[in-house]
Please model this.
Amino acid sequence: MTAFAPTPEHFQWSSSGRVGLITLNRPERKNPLTFESYAELRDLFRTLTTVEAVRAIVITGAGGNFCSGGDVHEIIGPLTRLDPQGLLNFTQMTGDLVKAMRHCPQPIVAAVDGVCAGAGAILAMAADFRLGTPRARTAFLFTRVGLAGCDMGACALLPRLIGQGRAAELLYTGRAMSAEEGRDWGFFNRLIEPEQLAAEALTLAGEIAGGPTFAHAMTKKMLHQEWDMGIDAAIDAEAQAQAVCMQTEDFRRAYRAFVAREKPRFEGN
Model:
């Protein structure tokens, strides 16, 4: 497999084996997003769709915080001066970032410490796994600036993670969800001490990356698509998906390993 080595301008990229690490790196401002970083993240996740060398992603923030959302001076201020078409272009672009995260085949692990607010909370929400720390504070702040809570898919995704009533409370009030609430409500898969967060996130992503790549991509695809299906349609769709997975060499290799009482080695084909 060819190495994948992008050089983004507005965040950091590194890799560890088959795991790609995205680090939002403006710690002096709690890692806010800008017009440019939204677009660059969107483009990266779109590119990852065809990158075989990367099999899982970790996204995190530098300096003890995940992401404080859209930069007040570089995004919020300029938005007040845009015409309606310019505003729609912006909101569609930010939504396209979430679409790109959901449609890239690699499972995404969000490693969340400290502030996780606004669009930062959306990034965490759009990931497949969320590991938090006891000091993580997650807030969907849109109503605090006179906007609706329905931003970047929040009204569709968040209720599915934590339930309709809890999502409504957070989206209407903008209050911060504590780390313990996030864990108990199902937003976080688990809580980890801050000094162990990066290692745990990379370990989880590494375990995923070492698994059956095509099958993981199919699982992610079906988890996404089946939100809009009835049970009968979902069962039929899963039958087709599983039949495709049974044609892979990974499936045959796992069978041979089982017969030989060995640990299977997945090669992504």
Observations:
- Residues 84-103 form the longest helix (20 residues).
- Residues 213-259 form one domain.
